[in-house]
Write a structure and sequence with these properties.
Largest sheet: 2 strands, antiparallel
Low-confidence stretches: 174-192
Structural class: mainly alpha
Helix content: 55-70%
Oligomer: single chain
Strand content: under 5%
Radius of gyration: 21 Å
Shape: globular
Strand order of the largest sheet: 1-2
Number of strands: 2
């Protein structure tokens, strides 16, 4: 911090200024975690992890992602909503956007079934949204995008693990949504999944979580 104070928005590097800055950073972070119901603080000193905080820590996922899931995933969330929520996870912010890549992403977008009101071909989350659908539809991708897709699917397996979402459901009461999210449909998009026989397992839900079973079969070879 003393070597590059501008990066940390420091105006002075004295011991007192550094101490004040770090204290403020810790206090703001703790308060944000309290607001997100990840931790609780008693008597201004005793910090305890709450269920959502323990989920984020034990599964190594961002507390921001946990918040988005708990606020956005509902019992009646459909395919479009599920795709948007999962693709918006903080874990996908590092998905690279290459120069002139928007041209091929537009071509992929023309072939996938689910569209958005606003398509941003230079946003990592939108690229994730496309790569997930390309996987469901089994669209052949060039090597760079195929490598990105593998990375996306690996992250999805962690984010959509049944044990994570079941625990989140226990915290939020979204048990119906947890059941939907734990679906691993087998087959391709044109065929009916046997999971449709289960009450409330609509085709859109089965289709979305086709990624889990497809990735499992892909990594077995």
């Amino acid at each position: 911090m003393t070597q590059n104070p501008n990066y940390y928005n420091l105006h002075n590097v004295s011991h007192q200024h550094l101490s004040d800055h770090l204290s403020e950073l810790v206090e703001n972070t703790l308060q944000e975690l309290v607001n997100l119901k990840c931790i609780s603080i008693e008597d201004e000193m005793d910090v305890s992890a709450l269920n959502l905080g323990m989920i984020a820590a034990s599964q190594n996922i961002s507390y921001v992602t946990v918040e988005v899931y708990t606020l956005s995933l509902k019992e009646r969330t459909k395919l479009k909503g599920l795709l948007e929520v999962v693709a918006s996870s903080a874990e996908f912010e590092s998905i690279p956007i290459r120069r002139h890549e928007d041209t091929i992403l537009r071509r992929i977008y023309d072939r996938v079934p689910v569209k958005l009101d606003r398509a941003d071909f230079k946003a990592p989350h939108f690229k994730t949204f496309l790569l997930l659908q390309a996987h469901f539809s089994r669209i052949q991708l060039p090597p760079d995008l195929a490598a990105d897709q593998v990375l996306v699917l690996e992250k999805v397996l962690n984010l959509c693990g049944c044990h994570i979402l079941k625990r989140m459901a226990e915290c939020t009461g979204s048990n119906g949504c947890a059941a939907d999210v734990c679906v691993g449909a087998v087959g391709d998009r044109q065929t009916d999944s046997p999971l449709k026989k289960i009450p409330h397992f609509e085709p859109e839900v089965c289709l979305f979580f086709l990624a889990v079973s497809l990735l499992n079969s892909k990594t077995d070879h």
